[in-house]
Amino acid sequence: MLHEFLLALLGFTGDFVLDNSSARRRPEPAEAGGAGDGDVGPAFRLAPDLTFLQPSERSAIERLISLGFYYRELNRFATESRDLSWIQSSVEVSSPNADITLNGKVRKGSAYRRAIANGIAEILSVYRSAVLQVEQNLLSDPLPILATVTHGLNKFEVLLPPLYELVMEIEQKDIKGGQLLNLLHKRCHCGVPELQSCIQRLLWHGHQVMFNQLTSWMVYGILQDQYHEFFIRRQVDRDEGNESAQSDVADKFAQKLAKDTSLTSWHSGFHVSLDMLPEYIHMRVAESILFAGKAIRVLRNPSPGATLLEPTNQSQTLKGSHRMQSFTGGPGALKELPNFSNISAEELLPQAEADKVDAMLKQLKHASEFHKRLFESAVSSIRTIAANHLWQLVVVRADLNGHLKALKDYFLLAKGDFFQCFLEESRQLMRLPPRQSTAEADLIVPFQLAALKTIGDEDKYFTRVSLRMPLFGMKSSTSQKDLQKSNTSDLSLQGKASSELALDGWHSIALEYSVDWPLQLFFTPDVLSKYRKVFQYLIRLKRTQMELEKSWTAVMHQDHVDFSDYCKDRKNSSATQLRRLRTKPFWRVREHMAFLIRNLQFYIQVDVIESQWNVLQTHVQDSHDFTELVTFHQDYLSALISQSFLDIGSVSRILDSIMKLCLQFCWSIEQYETGANMFEIDHITEEFNKKSNSLYTILRSSRLAGSQRAPFLRQFLMRLNFNSFFEVSSSN
Fold first, then answer.
1. Does the N-terminal peptide bond of residue 518 adopt cis geometry, omega within 30 degrees of 0?
2. Which pLDDT band holds residue 340 (cuts at 50, 70, 90)?
3. What is the DSSP string of 587-656?
4. 549-577: average pLDDT
5. CA–CA separation, 724 vs 730, rounded Å?
6. Polar residues bias located where (predicted)?
7. Four-residue CA torsion sign, 599, 601, 607, 608
8. Does residue 94 have a pLDDT over 50?
9. SS3 of residue 492 by DSSP
């Protein structure tokens, strides 16, 4: 009976110790939600026919043999979780993420559960050694049996039952990955030192898997997560709902990404899974881990066709003024290579830096306990290393500042002479309605002529700029003639729909900018769409300003001719003199229009664009962190949009209406000789006065006065209302 008793402690039953578990069914994971806790207790019982045992002895023995039941169940869990037979049988099961249990059932595998099983196997090994020691003690001194066994196995009575409950919860709820780490972390907070030590050891085993995954991700840029347990996940479901105006651009960008896996991974490849993120790891830290791994993937997978710049001294990192001199072509400038196709990952991420990251993670991995502060500090250091090398790649090698300057020149109209020439060359074309099939091709000719006249050969960025004419609807494709046919009722309905606010069919002129690897990391489709939005606004504004100037020039020329005729023949020039007198009020209105458009243009180009550009340049000069640069650039674009009122629907609609009225006025005045409707011109004047007064009223409202636009907005209002004209007009 002694040996059967000892065997029962190791999970083997016989004639004296019976196993009642066959009469009870252990709940499957799918039934965990409805399973009660009463059926998962110890199932080992002494045979009822052992009448020679006293009740106290029976109770003590059954309490001890329950350890055998816990041992057997824990050993079963460890054996099943550590079973690697799925490697050979996964083909038959047709699921590479499935394990085969001892019962022949298929369940999902788990690297974290296997690691916890290794920890449990360690504890069970200690338990077996304790049972063996008890057996040796009993063989040498058989009396007293119960006291000897109780003394040898006493500490396991506080260890095995909680571990059994832990295993049951893991199996019933199918807990794995970060959720398993969360469970262990919560169980560590108990008042039993021995149990706390065991749970911490299990947590240590789980952290070994996590640190292995972190090393693979943050050192090599590889996501090693066969069972989808890591808190960094591949992006499976992506939002494909894009605006129709951006669909073509998005498709082209997606085609580029398909050719470059590193860029695909950067923009849409990975995300943080909150379900598997341990609660003791902050979201900010998880995002740093995500960024570091994505950066390492980019650095270790350079595009084979990249055109980059090579520093004259690659052993030194450009800092301060030296780095800015390299942007402007000063001393220490970067030498452009025609094709830097032989660039290697070793040049972008030196092995010494990778070894440094690996050493930091190994130090955390080998620590006996998980220290949150040390972990966050190491992640921050690794993120800094990745961000600095990514900055070196994008800012220095890829000439980021040169491309920023090019976008400012063309999308923000800094090259005013080029766009002035383009608008003059295309002015006659834009007087006609655009043809949907050839509108873009028609604009290419004046665009190229303007480039030949104003763009020099030294501008290497112009070849990246292309003119586009996205598809436009018939409703907004009005021409000069359509605008002149607008009657009073049409004018009164302006502003009720954005499609009706288009200047004419040419309002959708846009630019595209070709970006190579690795600048797609910085100039995302969203960033380029913001540049495009500002460009379309600025080109409409400049076109309106040019039309106002051209109309003044043309009519003044005619006025000088009329005045010359009047001086030559005063008796027969009464009609000419009458026409001159009748048109004078029109020029007062034209001057009001030109005053508003000029000040708005000056405000956007000088107070907004140049001011924000200087701020961005300061950040580019001082920052060595890629993510900081991305943030600064996003702030730059947001400031351009907000301070240009493009994010305020009411203001942008009024500005569009004002520009449309200005164009209508110019075209109507030029056609005045051919019998334009005087009532139409008067109505345009009345509508302009209403819109301009409404604009002034909105801009000086308290809602805008308290926003971030306030300092710049006050300058614009001061220029508009320098003599209190708008204030008096709006109050009437």
1. yes
2. very low
3. HHHHHHHHHHHHHHHHIIIIIIIIHHHHHHHHHHHH---HHHHHHHHHHHHHHHHHHTTTT-HHHHHHHH
4. 63
5. 10
6. 310-325
7. positive
8. no
9. helix
Query: Amino acid letter at 476?
Result: S
pLDDT of 378 > 70? The answer is: yes
The Cα 519–Cα 461 span in angstroms is: 14
Residue 232, beta-bridge partner list? 272
CA neighbor of 601 nearest in space, from 552, 648, 526, 547: 547
Long-range contacts of 143-149 (CB under 8 A, 24+ apart): 145/2, 146/57, 146/60, 146/61, 146/64, 149/5, 149/9, 149/64
CA distance linking residue 180 with residue 540, whole number of Å = 59
Q: What are phi and psi of 110, to 5 degrees?
A: -160, 120
What residues contact residue 554 under an 8 Å CB cut-off, 6+ apart?
670
Residue 233 host element (H or E): strand 232-234
| Domain chopping of the chain, boundaries | 1-20+44-84+109-174, 204-236+261-302+349-393, 398-471+506-523, 556-731
Distances, alpha carbon 707 to alpha carbons 435, 704, 714, in Å = 43, 5, 11
Q: Angle formed by the axes of helices 145-153 and 111-140, to 10°?
A: 150
Write the DSSP assignment of 67-116 as a string of letters.
Answer: HHHHHHHHHHHHHHHH--THHHHHHHHT-TTEEE-TTS-EEE--HHHHHH
> pTM for the complete prediction?
0.73
Do the strands 232-234 and 106-108 form a parallel or antiparallel pair, or are they unpaired?
A: unpaired
Q: What angle do CA 616, 542, 506 make, to 5 degrees?
A: 110
Nearest one of 290, 175, 282 to 234, comparing CA atoms: 290
Tokens of 460: 């290497």
Residue 408 CA, chain-centre distance (Å), reads 23
CB 170 within 8 A of CB 45: no
Backbone phi, then psi, for 511, in 5-degree steps? -115, 150
**283 vs 550, more confident:** 283
**Cβ–Cβ under 8 Å, residues 358 and 350:** no
Report how far residue 431's alpha carbon sits from residue 130's, in angstroms, rounded to the nearest whole number: 97
| Residue carrying structure tokens 């402007």 | 328
363: number of Cβ within 10 Å: 12
DSSP assignment of 333-399 equals PPEEPS--TT--HHHHS-HHHHHHHHHHHHHHHHSSS--HHHHHHHHHHHHHHHHHHHHIIIIIITT
The token pair that represents 371 in the structure block:
């220290």
Q: What is the pLDDT of residues 289-302, one digit of tens each?
A: 999 999 998 888 87
pLDDT in tens, 316-337: 333 433 433 333 333 333 334 3
Confidence at residue 557, expressed as pLDDT on a 0 to 100 scale: 61
In whole numbers, what is the pLDDT of the chain averaged over residues? 76
Residue 109 binned pLDDT confidence (cut-offs 50, 70, 90) = confident
Kindly provide the b/e burial profile for residues 126-136, where b requires at least 16 CB atoms within 10 angstroms of the residue's own CB.
ebeebbeebbe
Report the distance separating Cα 249 and Cα 515, nearest Å. Answer: 12
Closest CA to 66 of 26, 27, 17: 17
pLDDT digits (tens, 9 = 90+) for 58-70: 777 778 888 889 9
